[in-house]
Design a protein that fits this description.
Largest sheet: 7 strands, mixed
Order of helices and strands: EHEHEHEHEEHEEHEHH
Oligomer: single chain
Number of helices: 8
Strand content: 15-25%
Radius of gyration: 18 Å
Number of strands: 9
Strand order of the largest sheet: 3-2-1-4-5-7-8
Structural class: alpha/beta
Shape: globular
């Protein structure tokens, strides 16, 4: 099995690359330069909301450093901007790797011409459980909706529909007392990255499995859905201890139904 990886440039993306590389299947890695991991607050926020915005993203950086560290990945690497993600040079690099499978995670949309030109199977890693949490910021919304147990990861077939492709594999969160929204998210990504490599490595490249079609459209979360004011519920009202509230039985909600064609009984 030869895998090409296309990701963003954050620590979580490098961690997945390091875990795939450890299996000996990673032939090369396209890295898209993403936005700053510590964004500036939008102008005009009330002082308390601005302070909460800064705290939220500082805690994210601390959680990802604690969980992922600084991964080392010793494979061929090709850096691109967002504008060049689907450019001919990227296609040429991917084709030179002769991959059986291309995995994407945390990059912008891979257009159909690129996918067709490379001539490999494309699967996308999504940081959320599809179809309930498709789109963006989907490790925040389960906690905001008071169901952190619905935090998870989905590997699905890459299509033109955002996070709507047939499901290859899903893994869920393990709720740990004391974890806030960012530690919950980081541990969820780590658990997925630690287990997906061996599952992929044992596949027959000539007979990759078809996914399980998503039976509903679910909810597509967009960047416009999120506002800094949402942070007040998580931090001011719940003290970033929504996981504890579930473990204590003070909150109840849906339980995830995980799907997988890599593990017959699911994740």
């Amino acid at each position: 099995m030869k895998i090409a990886l296309i990701t963003g440039d954050h620590q979580r993306h490098a961690y997945l690359a390091s875990r795939l590389a450890a299996t000996g299947t990673l032939a090369g890695w396209v890295v898209e330069e993403r936005e700053a991991f510590l964004p500036a607050p939008p102008p005009g926020l009330p002082a308390e909301t601005e302070a909460l915005f800064k705290r939220h993203f500082r805690l994210r950086e601390e959680a990802e450093t604690a969980v992922f560290g600084t991964p080392q990945v010793d494979v061929s690497r090709f850096g691109v901007s967002r504008e060049d993600l689907n450019a001919p040079a990227t296609i040429d690099y991917l084709r030179s790797l002769e991959p059986d499978l291309v995995i994407s995670y945390g990059c912008h949309k891979l257009e159909a011409p690129l996918r067709e030109a490379v001539g490999a199977t494309f699967w996308n890693t999504h940081g959320g459980l599809s179809p309930q949490y498709r789109g963006v910021i989907t490790h925040f919304w389960p906690s905001y909706m008071l169901e952190p147990q619905m935090t998870g990861m989905t590997l699905h077939e890459t299509t033109d529909e955002l996070d709507g492709g047939a499901i290859i594999h899903q893994s869920g969160a393990v709720l740990r007392r004391g974890d806030g929204v960012h530690l919950l998210a980081a541990r969820t990504v780590k658990a997925y990255a630690d287990t997906i490599g061996p599952l992929l490595a044992r596949l027959d490249p000539a007979a990759l499995p078809a996914g399980i079609r998503q039976k509903s459209t679910g909810k597509l979360w967009t960047s416009r859905d999120w506002r800094p004011e949402h942070l007040h519920l998580v931090y001011d009202h719940h003290g970033d201890r929504i996981v504890d509230a579930v473990l204590d039985g003070r909150l109840e909600g849906r339980e995830p139904k995980l799907l997988s064609v890599l593990e017959p009984q699911g994740a």
